[in-house]
Amino acid sequence: RIFQWQNVTSFQNITQLSFQLISEPIFGDYSIIMKEKSGRTLTHQFTVDRYVLPRFEVKVSAPQTVTISDDEFQVNVCAKYTYGQPVQGKAQIRVCRKFFSSENCENNNNEICEQFIAQLRNGCVTQIVNTKVFQLYRSGFFMSFQTTVTVTEFGTGVQISEKTSIFLTQLLGSVSFENMDSFYRRGIPYFGTLKFSGPDNVPKGNKPLRLELNNRFIGNYTTDDNGEALFSIDTSDIFDSEFNLKNCYPPSWLAPEYVDAHFSVSRFYSRTNSFLKIVPEPKQLRCNQQKTVTVHYTLNKEAYRDDSNINFFYLVTWNGNFSFPINVSADLAPVAVMLVYTLHPSGEIVADSVRFQVDKCFKNKVIMKFSKEQGLPGSNTDLYLQAAPDSYCALRAVDKSVLLLKSEQQLSAESVYDLLPRVELYGYFYHGLNLDDGKFDSCIPQKDIFYNGLYYIPVSNYGDGDTYDILRAMGLKVFTNLHYWKPEVCSTEGRMPFLRPLHLDAEGYGPIYSAPPRIASGGGLKENFDYVEQAIIETVRTNFPETWIWDLVSVDSSGSANMSFLVPDTITQWQANGFCVNGDAGFGISSTVTLEISQPFFVEMTLPFSVVRNEQSDLVVSVFSYLSTCVEISVRLESSQYFEANISTPKNNGSEIIQAGEKKTYVWTLLPKTLGKVNITVVAESRQSSACPKEATDQQNLNWKDTVVKSLLVEPEGIEKEMTQSFLICTQGTKVSNQVVLDLPNNVVEGSARAFFTVVGDILGLAMQNLENLLQMPYGCGEQNIALLASDTYVLDYLQSTKQLTEEVKSKAFFFLSNGYQKQLSFKNFDGSYSVFWQSNRKGSLCALTFKTLEKMKEYVYIDEQVQKQTLLWLSSKQQIDGCFKSDGKLFNNAWEGGEEEDVLLTAYIVGAFLEAGLNFTFPALRDGLFCLEEALQHGVTNGYNHAILAYAFALAEKEEQMESLLQILDQSATKTNNVIYWERAKKPKTEASRFFIPHAPSAETEKTCYVLLAVLSKKTPDLTYASKIVQWLARQMNSHGGFSSTQVIDMGLILIICFMRKMLLTFSDDQNTVTFHSEESSEIFQVNSDNRLLVQRSELTKAHGQYTVDVEGQGCTFIQATLRYNVLLPKKASGFSLSLEMIKKNSSDTFQSNFNLTVTLKYTGIRNNSNMALVDVKMLSGFTPVMASIEEVNNRSLKLEHGIIR
């Protein structure tokens, strides 16, 4: 939680809030959560990332489906700039049919792929793909094609990719029934629609269809352009309780084939043989229009005598139809149900209903419109807004490039309607109670009927429809003495009558609630630039916002507003929309309107997100001419004291000719000299040329000068380091002060230092906002994944016990646990053991950690019991006769390795895991393991780490004597300084020293300290004073994300902090602290209380060095952290590793080389037999980004890792 607002109020039901992200935010997804007083929450996500906006979009058009009889199919690719002009470049089209693993002998087949490269013409290209190579009739392959299209812009090398899937089917087409009624009413024609669709579900016209009723030919029909054919059936002579319709396409093949359609129609009951039928409307109704409803009817005239007027309020005959209009408005959206009925003189309700789908519209009709559809950069434009009088409106306009970068869930009529708790009534169940009054008509006695010498037995036909079904489907209760039920035959003796349930448990009819979801998915310039004078048209473009309009506007009493805006300098398309609220008319939303901004001649720069100081990078400049004829152009880069620049492309004496509709590209090599944002200015000029036709000059001015100024972020060189000073300060009405000194090392890269100060009321507040990022490293292996799962589980335990668990955090944590469990199973072997990597060596310590963690997770997510039993059996099988577990030589951290005592170490770890998982002491493997540990202790244990883990194991086993003796030994070897206690290794490697910042301890030392603290806290009467000094040291090891330095430490560290806070009995119910962070130049105050204890309050410091004071006053505990980040150059010293890089150009005829292969070679050269897990962090050179396809390939390689990179 990084920001929060409480007791938020609104103006005319609209609230606008904002907050500022820090300069170095955590990249990833963020959630905005709104909680209503009722407890309901709404969530909207946004992403924070490093990005460069795309300048063009790629659209791929391919058939949805291809049949196995097709010889070829077509893929169309189009690329256009956001301002509508075509892209000049080439398209790489890759079509693959992937092979899936099966039990036959074809397991080792690879995917079949075809690749095409073609140049775009007018921004588009069409590729015919021959299907023969894909072996369509062969099994073992997925029934789909995966198509990947990559468009590369000429000159800049910018690439944008799009993917699409094409399904492969044996079906040549299918027929279906549309707009069908499940019941027929004898005497009223039965209407319906036949439809023919191709394999891609596209309707096909001029197709012959055959209709059959109970296998009896009805007629032949031909589909129209919509693939539909209407039919009607005379039901006057149909008495069947049900008839079956069949719609088929005459050709019949085994494979490929056409699919027939079948539909069953039941009889509708009426005791007077009177019926109504409302003609349905298959299409969705548009708002603010009239819909004419037509009703067919047939009425039994016997009871009417001489009446000619009945309750239709229309003059009718005994058979026929009538129509009446209805007004379609927002009141009917999104679904409206109409009932038409009449009261027959014989005492029967004759009725029918119809369901209309209505556009999702609103009473408040909002219209937005720009004064013109196209314009020039920096020009003025008007935005017209129309809504209900006195509405309050929110408007926005964003660059189309932003939406291309990542499509977002925009506010729309659909998303607003999804928020509403829509109720569609069906049935008479309410809150689980059956409110159906039951049938008041008595049943018909089951007496045999004698007719024409035969006896007939009456039976109930439960398949018939009746008026009761219609009313029940609408949720309507009827108070009447008229008949609207179909009759039922009385049950015979020995058969229980059908009884309706008094209470509905899990199934049945009732209101269907649609719960609101968590909001947790052209051509060129048409304006005629008619210039007479040939003076230079000069433009200077410096304003390039991503969001142009974000404003709140009031509409006057006339219902309109007209606003003027200055158009930004971006050559793009702006997309604008808005919504309005009015007390009477309610909510309304506009459709999206666009404004296309361009000019006939302009220059664009292709810049990376950032570059590194003193690293060369390429500046690519493109000049676009949409003038009516060719012109002479010149381009220059303005010099600057902040960078050096050398042009890489030929100058041609400073000018060259550019044709109409052409693009020219120029490349400069930049060498930045200063940090921060550096302005880069490029000037492009066009002028008339004697080499070009002169008649065009009479229509359009050819003399343009376009200047573009953009900023480039320059970052410091070297590798980033982070130092933290952390304090857990608990007060009881007193004032506590601590000194914070920001001290930079001598080898810091100039200008790279920055610092911030963090205050949070709960020590786990940092961890809570980074549940998925605590490790600050990939969690792809089994150890990292299970450690993260363990920490999330303990965090959940703590929040539940302190009543701080919100639905938002609970949902997020459950998602991580469920997905992490599935991922952990991918490291499980067939025998129940687990490996660090898939199908690698089995590890006893990893199996024990996984077993105890999954046991703990059972409280929150489903864990397969058989999986746990299998792991337990595997661990038990590794136990030796003496009760010890044989070490596999692969411990979490090779700094722990203790020679002959490694078996004791692993045994203590597994025994501790068994005890944490809650196994009984009678379990043989646990009982024998404890015996092994007791024997080892009697014979003498010399390794200090073993002392710590043995003490914890004996504490869990409640063996006080052994535990106390080990804790005494450990206390003698502890480091006690500045009111903290911790344990160091005897042969500790040297670390960079600082007078004030204590470097994070190696993971081996932190783990040893954690085990000692676990043992102390596991005692029946723990020494909390002693424990608090260890916790203070642990708090100092926390990084700025609330985590620790390794997977094992993060698991144990969070467990210990949680356990300690529980022991201290800190409920935080009345906590209120004031934290003052000040220096001689500045001062800042933070308030910490029970309402914001999980809120991470952070302040960036203006100076990254100097002395600060922290004062804490009040009641309760507060976690305070000062973070200092800076860069240092990689020192040339022995590190235990040998690293080399090689970058090779790919063969290409392009002038501007954009693709390279990067090979990273890493060797371990240290003194141990092997290293711990190593991570290779490849920081790209300025202007380069990795090709994601090559990153994916790395996952499938074991030794040789070769990356592709792109400028």
UniProtKB/TrEMBL annotation:
SMART domains: A2M, A2M_N_2, Thiol-ester_cl. Keywords: Disulfide bond, Protease inhibitor, Secreted, Serine protease inhibitor. Transmembrane segments: none annotated. GO terms for cellular component: extracellular space. It comes from Panthera tigris altaica (Siberian tiger). It holds the Pfam family A2M_recep. It is found in: Secreted. One of its GO terms (molecular function) is serine-type endopeptidase inhibitor activity. InterPro entries: A-macroglobulin_rcpt-bd, A-macroglobulin_rcpt-bd_sf, A2M/Complement_sys, A2M_N_BRD, A2M_TED, Alpha-macroglob_thiol-ester_cl, Alpha-macroglobulin_TED, Ig-like_fold. The keyword ATP-binding does not apply. This is Ovostatin. Belongs to the protease inhibitor I39 (alpha-2-macroglobulin) family. Residues 276-405 form the Alpha-2-macroglobulin bait region domain. It comes from the Eukaryota. The keyword Secreted applies. Residues 547-637 form the Alpha-2-macroglobulin domain.
